[in-house]
Amino acid sequence: MKFGHFDDEHREYVIETPKTPLPWINYLGSKEFFTLISNTCGGYTFYKDAKLLRLTRYRYNDVPMDINGKYFYIKDGDTVWNPGWKPTQTDLDEYECRHGIGYSKFKGVKNGVKADVLTFVPVNDNCEVSKLVVTNDSSEEKNISIFSYVEWCLWNADDDSRNFQRNFSTGEVEVKGSAIYHKTEYRERRNHYAVYSVNAPITAFDTARDSFLGLYHYAGNPEAVLNGKLTNSMASGWSPIAAHQLDVTLKPGESKSYVFVLGYIENPVEDKWESHNVINKKPAEALLAKYDTDAKVDAAFAELNDQWDKLLNIYTVDSSNDKVNRMVNIWNQYQCMVTFNMSRSASYYESGIGRGMGFRDSCQDLLGFVHLIPDRARERIIDIASTQFEDGRAYHQYQPLTKKGNSDIGSGFGDDPLWLIAGTSAYIRETGDATILDEMVPFDNDASVAQTLMEHLRRSFGYVDTHRGPHRLPLIGRADWNDCLNLNCHSTQPGESFQTFGPSEGPVAESVFIGGMFVKYGNEYADLCDLKGLTDEAAKVRASVAEMNEILLDSNAGWDGEWFVRAYDSYGNKVGSKECEEGKIFIEPQGFCVLAGVGTETGQAQKALDSVKEHLDTKYGVMILQPAYTVYHEELGEVSSYPPGYKENAGIFCHNNPWVSIAETVIGRGDRAFEVYKKTCPAYTEEISEIHRTEPYIYCQMVAGADAKFHGEGKNSWLTGTAAWTFVNISQYILGVYPTLKGLSVDPCVPADFGDFSVKRVYRGVEYDISVKQNGAQKGVKELIVDGVKVEGTVIPYDASKKTVKVEVVMG
Ligand code: BGC
Ligand code: NOJ
């Protein structure tokens, strides 16, 4: 069952009912100012950091769900309604929400009045702009009142939700004309404030929540709105808000338009004040003036759309499969931008006060983003590497505002160092810019011990190479990619964090998965050594990789007979083996070892993937492990804490489904690669939205596995490495346009009935127009013709002097 439809021409998902199975959200903003917005106008806004600079309040896990947002109320006689249905939930005659690329549109119609709202964050300003157009479609004159409402957050969202003894006394505001200013803590150490304004004279306002809502009311029935009259309240402590009232007369057929701007302003410390305790509003007024007419707003909206036209032109596919075209050309790339911006900080499942930027997460997000804005990827790589320690380990997370490592979670995740190689290699393969390797980059943000980025990568590789266990496999530490395999943790008391309890490293617990990563990214690191002319080092690295390859294939170490072992616990017992009672087979080492090329010559790769199909496959995707753990295993950690079928305990963890799909392309099985791709692909799961529940235009982190009560139900949408890995899978492996250090390679692996297709790819400033004749083949390039000239192999020689290159590929 569907609750909307795709409008590919406008790059929108059109939601036809406010009663979606879960809030279906969108992200506005692409650089520093961000808004989460749901299909009923819920959500919140922050500047740079969802924990430290939160502008508006949101209450997670509240009832009814998704209740706080940025609302417009329309009072027409005795009827009060919202264009997005919530929070009054007054039945609408018509409702529509269109989530687009960096904007959302709402249409609500009630009793002959239509309200259209367009909300977006302009490309170059720190504000959110909402254009509200009200139209009288009835035959009578209408006298309506429009009310706006946002609730300010006292900046630090963590403190805001806990420290009430202080916070109920700090709130401060100013009002000037139609502009309401939130200036809590500005008198002391802050030099920033927020403003919410409308480009028309207002009848009244409120800035104190209790006056607007009424003490015993809530956002669904605000007293002042029901009374038809805001009270001009000036907040002092408690909960400051911003609400405007506009009284509007509309003749039959008449429309009126209003622009609301919610902005963030920073002043230089010496220029904070206009007069004693009166904030300097000049920069705010300048900002508001940029959006005070429809024409200016329309121009800013066009600029946003132009930006996305350009970004989404960098990689486009034209195939006979509409769903693939839609995901590749629009939604998958869009989600990659969002995961790049947010890492794992703020979604409807990540509260924005928890995890900030993940080291491994952000490195992986780069893989799906780097072709879009390489300069920002470059900056991000430097930021991430700056949180690495001198010995090659890394902080597991860092805060986006301060860019400093988060010492609460600390370090010790065995896989983290290698992901830095993955991100850097992707950047250089995309751009050809090897100068990044010469950048001086601090360790633990200490510039006095800075070394080149190349040296950082060397230490990444070196750390894993020198921290091995009894089988010469890499030590797992606190966990590897699977945050829940906490083999050194041994926690028995509720409340202890599985990720930080216990030693950060034990001498015995090993990860086969990191072994697979070591092969994949060791090879990429060796290529970078070659690029730098470090042939001796490259040879040494390759020797280590070759040794690891053997270890992984050895039935006394990485190989279990029919698949790869997952790990060895701190007692030296196998995890993910036929010898285990539960958790006999895990997905991660099968996908990652094979995509790294391990076992492709011995038949073990094929065997491992066949085992995945036999033991882990479901109609909704490939599960992370089987059989699920039914009892808690102290020696394994969080993995066995989840009820069977959820999350890392036998859920369908979407992130590693593309690893399996990529692995299938590595061994040339296009049918199966595509089958795996389709199972978790939003354009396909849209049809079962009532089961899947999360947004049908983007990936979620986890779908409940076969053991779960709600098999097929998705959770934790948006912020997941699935976005980047799926884009890598479909664009670079299935469609096969893969950036190498030497140039673009074209080597598709598609299902037998996929048909001919073409890809346009802008790469290092050259536009490649690639057409592929499939000939029913799943893999194999019989002929590669570049501008009419036959080329051996699959790599198109890079020639910067050309603007466009025509590439013909014949498979077979
Ligand atoms: C979750 C993981 C997550 C981790 C973060 C665990 O509870 O299951 O998916 O990565 O927490 O700390
Ligand atoms: C989500 C985390 O963000 C990611 O870092 C981790 O790899 C997966 N969960 C699996 O545990």
Q: How would you describe the overall organization of this protein?
A:
The chain contains 20 helices and 43 strands. With 812 residues, it is α+β, with helices and mostly antiparallel strands. It has a 10-stranded antiparallel β-sheet with strand order 1-2-9-10-11-12-19-16-15-14, with helices on one face. The longest helix is centred in the middle third of the chain and has 21 residues, at 322-342. It is globular. The model has no long low-confidence stretch (mean pLDDT 98). Residues 483-484, 499, 638, 647-648 line the site of beta-D-glucopyranose (BGC).
List the helices and strands and how they pair.
Elements: E1 4-7, E2 12-15, E3 25-28, E4 33-38, E5 43-47, E6 54-56, E7 71-76, E8 79-81, E9 94-99, E10 103-110, E11 113-120, E12 127-136, E13 142-155, H1 157-160, H2 164-167, E14 173-176, E15 179-182, E16 192-198, E17 204-208, H3 209-213, H4 223-226, E18 240-250, E19 255-266, E20 273-275, E21 278-279, H5 282-289, H6 294-311, E22 315-318, H7 322-342, E23 357-358, H8 359-369, H9 374-385, E24 397-398, H10 416-431, E25 440-443, E26 446-452, H11 453-466, E27 510-511, H12 512-531, H13 535-553, E28 567-568, E29 574-575, E30 585-586, H14 587-595, H15 604-616, E31 617-618, E32 621-622, E33 625-626, E34 652-653, H16 657-666, H17 670-680, H18 682-685, H19 689-692, E35 700-703, E36 714-717, H20 722-734, E37 737-739, E38 744-746, E39 757-763, E40 766-773, E41 781-786, E42 789-791, E43 804-811
Helix pairs in contact: 7-8, 7-20, 8-9, 8-10, 8-20, 9-10, 10-11, 10-12, 11-12, 12-13, 12-14, 14-15, 14-16, 16-17, 16-20, 17-20
The protein binds beta-D-glucopyranose and 1-deoxynojirimycin.
1-deoxynojirimycin is lined by residues 344, 358, 360-361, 481-484, 648.
